[in-house]
Amino acid sequence: MKILLFTAYLAFLCYFLFFAESMGRGFTERAYHYNLMPLKEICRFWIHRKALGFWSVALNLVGNVVAFIPFGMFLPWLYGRCRRFGLTVWASFEFSLLVETIQLVFKVGSFDVDDILLNTLGGILGFWGYRIYVYVRKRIA
After folding, report:
1. 112 has which bridge partners?
2. Number of structural domains found in the chain
3. Closest CA to 77 of 10, 138, 14, 3
4. What is the span of the domain harbouring residue 108?
5. How does DSSP classify residue 79?
């Protein structure tokens, strides 16, 4: 059941990252944008939050974090080695880098180092959510 849930999560995530046309995805001819400067897009979204609107800012900043929280929760739940903080952080970083690289190569979405930072933060929060769950479950049992 755990593997099935993780697979469904990954399929859902891949759809939104690579194929959801409502999210500006798809393999269309357009100018491709990328960001290699850490915190550049995060600051731009924050500075221009009023002009961009709440949903645009929330989708970019909060959405990138929230999208990877399940990843950080599933890894230690499924793989004993990932119950160590560093391994979950590293795996979250690597998976996010893979996603961004695929977006760069296939020109779908945009490569953004800030997304890697935000996705990795989501993995970290997911890991701590898992740890809190385990702690509470032990205290109740």
Report:
1. 35
2. 1
3. 3
4. 2-25+32-140
5. -
Beta carbons within 8 Å of 10's beta carbon, 6+ residues apart: none
Among residues 77, 60, 73, 71, the alpha carbon closest in space to that of 118 is found at: 60
Distances (CA, A) of 88 to 50, 82, 125: 35, 5, 10
Task: List, for residues 67-96, the tens digit of each pLDDT value.
Answer: 999 999 999 999 999 999 999 999 999 999
Helix (H) or strand (E) holding 51: helix 49-52
Mean pLDDT of 115-124: 98
> By CB neighbour count within 10 A (0-12 exposed, 13-18 middle, 19+ buried), where does 55 fall?
exposed
d(CA 64, CA 138): 31
pTM of the predicted structure, to 2 decimals: 0.90
- What is the model's pLDDT at position 10? 96
β strands within the chain, DSSP E: 34-35, 111-112
Distance CA(58)–CA(129), nearest Å, equals 21
